[in-house]
C-alpha cells in the first residue's frame, strides 16, 4: 500500500504540506478535546469530570502537535501562528494558510463529534438544544463572572501558553529534546486548565472557541451560542489574540534578547619570523605567519547538547 501511494499520489508543495499538517493536527486536537467533554456531560459525570476533561485536552494537544510538528511546526492555534508571524519566525504570507487550515480542521472535528454523540445528545435534551449541551463544543462563562474577568482570564492563560511555547522552542536556552516537545506542551495545557479553567473554560485558542460556536449555531442551537450572556462570544477571542502577542513579547524582552552573542577569538594572530638556517647565498625564505582561528562560543552547554 505504501508503495502504491508513493507511486500514484502527487507530491504536495511545502505550502500544501503545511496546510495539511495544520488541518490534521487541529482535527486531532479538537476531536479529543470535544470528545472528553461530551463523554463527561452526556454521562452526567459518570464517565468523566473536570480533571478528565483537562487531561483529555492535554492529550489532544500532545498528539495533534505530534501529527504536525515536523511538517508545519504544529501551531494548531491562530494565536500561536500570529505570535510567530509577529516575532518574524513565520512569513506573513503563510498566516492565511495556517488560519484556514485551523478553521477548517476545527469545523470538521466539531461536526464529527456531533454525529458520533448525536444519539446520546438527543436522549439528554430531547432534541431541545440548551447551553449546557452547547458547552460540549465551546466555552461559556460561569454565572457571576464579568466580561472584564473573562477578558483578563484569557489574556493571562493564552499569554502563559505562548510565552512558555516560545521558551520551549528557544534553541539558546532549550533543555527539552524536540521529540518531547509535544508532550511538554500537553503538560503545559494541563497546568493552565487545572489552574485557570473555572471562569470560562480556558479556551486559549480562537478557533477552539469561535468555530465550534459557529457549528453549534448551525446544528440546532440557533442563536443561543452567540446571544448568551449579552453576546459574550467575542470577548475570549479578543483576549486570546491579545494574550498571545503579550506572551510572545514578554518572553522576547525578558529572556530571548539577552542571550550572549557568540564571539570568535583568535588564539595566535601571528608567529615570529623563523631564524635563517640557509646559506646567505641562497634566497631568504619568505616570512611565515601562522594564523590559527579558534572559535569560543559562550553558550548554555545543556542547550548546545539538546539542539537537534
What does the model show?
With 308 residues, this protein is mainly α. The protein folds into 2 domains: 10-258, Glycerol uptake facilitator protein (Up-down Bundle), CATH 1.20.1080; 264-306, no CATH class. 62% of the residues lie in helices and 4% in strands. The protein is built from 12 helices and 2 strands; from the N terminus they run αααααααααααββα. It has helices spanning 2-8, 14-42, 50-72, 78-86, 95-125, 131-134, 147-168, 181-196, 206-221, 224-231, 234-254, 301-306, and strands spanning 263-268, 292-296. A two-stranded antiparallel sheet has the order 1-2. The longest helix has 31 residues, at 95-125. The radius of gyration is 27 Å and the shape is globular. Residues 264-270 and 288-308 have low confidence and may be disordered.
Based on DSSP secondary structure assignment, what is the total number of beta strands?
Answer: 2
Mean pLDDT: 87
- Major sheet: order of its strands? 1-2
Taking the sheet with the most strands, its summary is:
2 strands, antiparallel
What percent strand?
under 5%
H-E order: HHHHHHHHHHHEEH
Amino acid at each position: 500500500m505504501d508503495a502504491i501511494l508513493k507511486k500514484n499520489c502527487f507530491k504536495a508543495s511545502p505550502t500544501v504540506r503545511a496546510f495539511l499538517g495544520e488541518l490534521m493536527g487541529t482535527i486531532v486536537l479538537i476531536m479529543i478535546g470535544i470528545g472528553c467533554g461530551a463523554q463527561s456531560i452526556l454521562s452526567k459525570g459518570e464517565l468523566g469530570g473536570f480533571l478528565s476533561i483537562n487531561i483529555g485536552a492535554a492529550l489532544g494537544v500532545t498528539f495533534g502537535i505530534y501529527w504536525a510538528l515536523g511538517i508545519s511546526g504544529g501551531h494548531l492555534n491562530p494565536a500561536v501562528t500570529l505570535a510567530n508571524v509577529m516575532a518574524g519566525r513565520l512569513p506573513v504570507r503563510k498566516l492565511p494558510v495556517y488560519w484556514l487550515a485551523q478553521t477548517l480542521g476545527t469545523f470538521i472535528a466539531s461536526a464529527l463529534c456531533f454525529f458520533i454523540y448525536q444519539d446520546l445528545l438527543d436522549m439528554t435534551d430531547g432534541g431541545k438544544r440548551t447551553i449546557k449541551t452547547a458547552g460540549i463544543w465551546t466555552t461559556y462563562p460561569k454565572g457571576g463572572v464579568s466580561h472584564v474577568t473573562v477578558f483578563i482570564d484569557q489574556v493571562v492563560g493564552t499569554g502563559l501558553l505562548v510565552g512558555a511555547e516560545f521558551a520551549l522552542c528557544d534553541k539558546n536556552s532549550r533543555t527539552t529534546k524536540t521529540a518531547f516537545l509535544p508532550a511538554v506542551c500537553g503538560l503545559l495545557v494541563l497546568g493552565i486548565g487545572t489552574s485557570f479553567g473555572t471562569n470560562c473554560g480556558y479556551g486559549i485558542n480562537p478557533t477552539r472557541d469561535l468555530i465550534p460556536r459557529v457549528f453549534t449555531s448551525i446544528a440546532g442551537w440557533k442563536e443561543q451560542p452567540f446571544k448568551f450572556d449579552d453576546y459574550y462570544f467575542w470577548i475570549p477571542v479578543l483576549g486570546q489574540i491579545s494574550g498571545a502577542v503579550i506572551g510572545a513579547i514578554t518572553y522576547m524582552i525578558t529572556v530571548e534578547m539577552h542571550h550572549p552573542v557568540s564571539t570568535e577569538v583568535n588564539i595566535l594572530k601571528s608567529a615570529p619570523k623563523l631564524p635563517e638556517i640557509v646559506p646567505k647565498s641562497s634566497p631568504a625564505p619568505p616570512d611565515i605567519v601562522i594564523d590559527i582561528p579558534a572559535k569560543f562560543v559562550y553558550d548554555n552547554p545543556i542547550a548546545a547538547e539538546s539542539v537537534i
